[in-house]
Specification:
The chain is built from two helices and no strands. It is mainly α and 76 residues long.
């Protein structure tokens, strides 16, 4: 009998508010980043800063669930 490579943990916490926040908050940041990219070309002098804000928002939307949250979970 073979065992799966990744076994389900007993305390996976898939229904916890923190797990839901780790999905909803990055999704909101991703959509905010796309909106900032769209607006950046129409705001005049603030265009480069708004575009930079879009880059930061999308970067955080990928960094939170892949890097930041696993590091925080390992500390606890």
């Amino acid at each position: 009998m073979s065992y799966p490579v990744i076994e389900r943990r007993e305390d996976d916490g898939s229904g916890t508010p923190g797990r839901m926040l780790s999905v909803v908050f990055p999704a909101i940041l991703f959509l905010l980043g796309l909106a900032l990219f769209t607006v950046a070309f129409n705001v005049g002098d603030w265009g480069p800063w708004v575009f930079f804000g879009g880059i930061v928002a999308i970067s955080l939307s990928f960094a939170i669930p892949t890097t930041i949250l696993p590091a925080l979970e390992d500390r606890a």
